[in-house]
Amino acid sequence: MAEKRAVVLLSGGLDSATCLAWARREGFVCDAISFRYGQRHQFELAAAARVAESQAVSSHRIVDIDLAAFGGSALTTDAPVPKDRDETAMSSGIPSTYVPARNTVFLSLALAFAETRGAADIVIGVNALDYSGYPDCRPEYIEAFERMANLATRMGTEGGRAVKIHTPLIRLTKARIVALGRELGVDYSLTHSCYDPAADGRACGHCDACLLRKKGFAEAGLADPIAYVT
Known about the structure:
alpha/beta; Rossmann fold; 8 helices; 37% helix; 11% strand; globular
């Protein structure tokens, strides 16, 4: 029987680490892909490498692209990262931490990697509940990309294998994601979520990513194992 192979987008954060563990539980042989895209810090890439090693992936590629050349985001420029926003503010519009077309670029490169690895399955940790208003995390976006992927690839048109974009976390709250990760044995101490960490890598505790992460652990009744500045 041919092995089931999947490409997993691995940012080094809580969600992507959980997705990798989910894919392994589903029986996939996993190739991980991460991106050095001009983000304001490299701690997440170090975390991605730790997570990939801990979960024994088949391969882990870190791909260099330069989205900072276009700017337009607090994650690729020196613009301030929003802090201490409540849930209403987080969901009221697209925040300054949105990186223009990032998931489209990432998924396109993951799709190219998947074709070279003979993988018809791609796993991404987008979430449509506890998220910061990003348009490229919505189910309709993923569905549209999947349709495009099957029109645009040899695998989808001649290979007799439909490309599938898996989004196992898309309908889960952050608390349910944390609980799932615990069930799957994810070591969350290896992960990094913060948008604006201190120079030593400790999480700020105040950006949207930190607030959602802390809320998820609190609601799951678990301690967050990473270090925070405050």
